[in-house]
């Protein structure tokens, strides 16, 4: 699906969940390629496209899923898990030890960064309204 209103982006594409690939990395990469191809088809140069990969994670037995952005500076397969636990602790103040972590779905966002739009001009003041009954 195409994304509209993405701040600081002149083009965007957002795609979720593809269960056809076997591994987490394969699923995310498949979605990334699909998103990249969509923006290239819209006329954006491939080298200007930025891909963000997310996992929607939660503790087993809970309903509180948190969308976790892929850690680009870590090659550890557990970096998503550590990020989830840290963020869960920040939001809820505790960790659920001994619970498995589940991935509910995968998400990829492809954007083409653009210039930040200038703020709208301020509206000049018209002064105080006239007194009522005068």
What does this structure look like?
The chain is α+β, with helices and mostly antiparallel strands and 134 residues long. It has two helices and four strands. A four-stranded antiparallel sheet has the order 1-4-2-3, covered by helices on one side. The longest helix is centred in the first third of the chain and has 18 residues. The protein is flat. The chain starts with 8 loop residues before the first strand and ends in a 21-residue tail after the last strand.
Question: Topology, pairings included?
Answer:
Elements: E1 9-16, H1 24-41, E2 50-59, E3 66-69, H2 79-92, E4 101-113
Antiparallel strand pairs: 1-4, 2-3, 2-4
In whole angstroms, how far apart are the ends? 58 Å
pLDDT below 50 for ≥5 consecutive residues: which ranges?
1-7
The succession of helices and strands, N to C, reads EHEEHE
* Total helical elements: 2
In one word, what is the shape?
A: flat
Number of strands: 4
| Spatial strand arrangement across the major sheet | 1-4-2-3
Mean pLDDT: 81
- Please report which band the strand proportion falls in: under 5%, 5-15%, 15-25%, 25-35%, 35-45% or over 45%: 25-35%
Structural class: alpha+beta
Helix residue percentage:
10-25%
Largest sheet: 4 strands, antiparallel
Rg, rounded, reads 22 Å
Features:
four-stranded antiparallel β-sheet; 134 residues; flat; alpha+beta; single chain
Summarize the structure.
The protein has 134 residues and is α+β, with helices and mostly antiparallel strands. The protein contains two helices and four strands, in the order E-H-E-E-H-E. A four-stranded antiparallel β-sheet has the order 1-4-2-3, with helices on one face.
């Amino acid at each position: 699906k195409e994304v509209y209103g993405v701040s600081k982006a002149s083009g965007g594409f957002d795609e979720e969940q593809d269960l056809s690939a076997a591994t987490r990395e394969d699923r995310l990469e498949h979605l990334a390629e699909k998103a990249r191809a969509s923006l290239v088809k819209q006329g954006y140069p491939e080298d200007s496209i930025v891909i963000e990969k997310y996992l929607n994670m939660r503790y087993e037995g809970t309903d509180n899923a948190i969308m976790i952005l892929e850690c680009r500076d870590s090659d550890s397969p557990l970096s998503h898990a550590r990020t989830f636990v840290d963020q869960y602790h920040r939001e809820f103040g505790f960790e659920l030890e001994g619970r498995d972590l589940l991935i509910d779905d995968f998400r990829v966002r492809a954007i083409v960064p653009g210039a930040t739009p200038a703020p709208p001009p301020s509206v000049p003041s018209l002064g105080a309204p006239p007194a009522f009954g005068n």
